[in-house]
Amino acid sequence: MKPIYKIIAASVIGTSFMTLYSYHRSRKENQQYREPVLLNKLINRSEILPVKVGDNHPAGWIGHYAVGMLFVVTYYALWKKVLHSPGPVRTLTVGTLSGVIAIGAWKTMFAANDNPPENDRQGYYRQLFVAHLIFSLFALAAYKTSEKATQ
């Protein structure tokens, strides 16, 4: 299997499990933690972007999965240069770094928007951190599984 197919599969699997967790936490805490919906709200409320979208517009989903792909491409580069065969400690390290980066990105997006969506920010950042641990675990496991399957 070509690396691009492994990257796509890993990003779809990682992003899907992360999103399931975010939807679960959103429902459980009665807060808006769903990344595709938050992205659409940011797009819709942007003064710069000339479009208006609904909460379930494909733009939020495409953006969310595209960022997942960007993370996995970064993991792939790390895999080839540093990680080689990521075990639990390396996976947690990558997940931790991913969570910190994601929190910084969301803080920036919320701050850059004149009318950001409402939610419990601290609760969101906590669940986002855990979501990225889940993302990393599933994305790296999927990539590792596809590596073994093609050997």
Q: Give the termini separation.
A: 9 Å
Helix/strand order: HHHHH
The main β sheet shows up as: none
Number of helices: 5
Residues in helix, %: over 70%
The average pLDDT value, as a whole number, equals: 92
The count of strands amounts to 0
**What structural class do you assign from the helix and strand content?**
mainly alpha
Beta-strand level of the residues, as a percent range?
under 5%
Taken together, the total number of domains comes to 1
| Low-pLDDT residue intervals, each spanning 5 or more residues | none
What best-fitting shape do the alpha-carbon axes yield? globular
Based on CA atoms alone, the radius of gyration comes out at 16 Å
Keywords: Membrane, Transmembrane, Transmembrane helix
Transmembrane segments: 7-24, 59-79, 91-112, 124-143
What does this molecule look like?
- The chain crosses the membrane at residues 7-24, 59-79, 91-112, 124-143.
- Keywords: Membrane, Transmembrane, Transmembrane helix.
- The protein is mainly alpha-helical and 151 residues long.
- It has one domain.
- Helix content is 77%, strand content 0%.
- The chain is built from 5 helices and no strands.
- The protein has helices spanning 3-29, 35-44, 58-83, 88-112, 121-149.
- α1 (3-29) packs across α3, α1 runs antiparallel to α5 (121-149) and α4 (88-112) packs across α5.
- The longest helix is centred in the last third of the chain and has 29 residues, at 121-149.
- The protein starts with a helix and ends with a helix.
- The model has no long low-confidence stretch (mean pLDDT 92).
